[in-house]
């Protein structure tokens, strides 16, 4: 496998983990209402990262289109997480940023 | 396909829809904190219903074990939704109840 | 829910079923080698249909982008299934055609 | 996160990758018919590993039941891959064996 795809796969797996941890933590926060968009985007992002990891490893004929969608969803999730001070949000934003970058590099 | 499997498939697809609608509505409720467990279980239940629908239609060798897990998750989601008065929770609880029953009938 | 989204959801669920049945049947054909691309595309298409059904029902902020991807994958799967005379391929091609159309109508 | 869960997560991600690579390679083998069961089980196993990775990271209330199912599917996929001499089957069988073990240790 091409090294950019390998990096993209690792970034997707790390982003999947960070998004789901952020989702779980957000649901346990005192002010859940403030985290509603974050919960929603964490699920969107974890799901597309899982989907992209499957696409890369099974050599999907649509892998580039899927990576482009993944980059877009990661960027939206990053923007939302960046609004919050929770440690889990900061970690999630960072993982999303790296994953979006890795997807764009792999597509290029 | 066996008629019980056909019924189980339809019940899974309806439950997937009801759970995701309940999830979306819960995230928009005034009191999101009160709905945190419901949000979590709606996602769990929508995901296992999608998984079970895939397993039934692709003739998975593990379809019975997957249906058993689906029944269990549906029952837990039903219990949680039954605690709330929102119309989306009532509809979700009913879809979960039917899906759990259909899974158990298909496994029997 | 918007009527075009409702139609798209139903088309996705029918396409998911047709693709997985075709996948299962292809794996049991005498000449599996001839069906290799069909098996691969059936899985791709069943997976994006399941993904799109989840996105529609949970009111995903990315639903239009996901529908566009779904339309593209459905069209590719339809083209492949159209090459074969098996009844399961014909049914799958028809479900893919309808799903691609419904996705494009919902996005428009 | 508990160290056994962390190990299980890593084993699931490696197994997902190995199963999908084996699936892709099997579809390109000269004798695809001989690999039909392997193709089918690779998809089953990749999907449950992706599902289990999601369950672990989002702190699913059903994580143990999901790990038990994952262990069972991994063992069945390992048995099938063990019948073949292809390098991708050997690697897949090894990843399945490790993943089944990690799931059982995490559940214990």
Automatic annotation (TrEMBL), chains A, B, C, D:
Coiled-coil spans in chain: none
Gene3D superfamilies: 1.20.1270.360
Annotated InterPro entries: Csp_YhjQ (IPR005560), YHJQ-like (IPR044543)
One Pfam family in the UniProt entry: Csp
Name used for this protein in its record: Four-helix bundle copper-binding protein
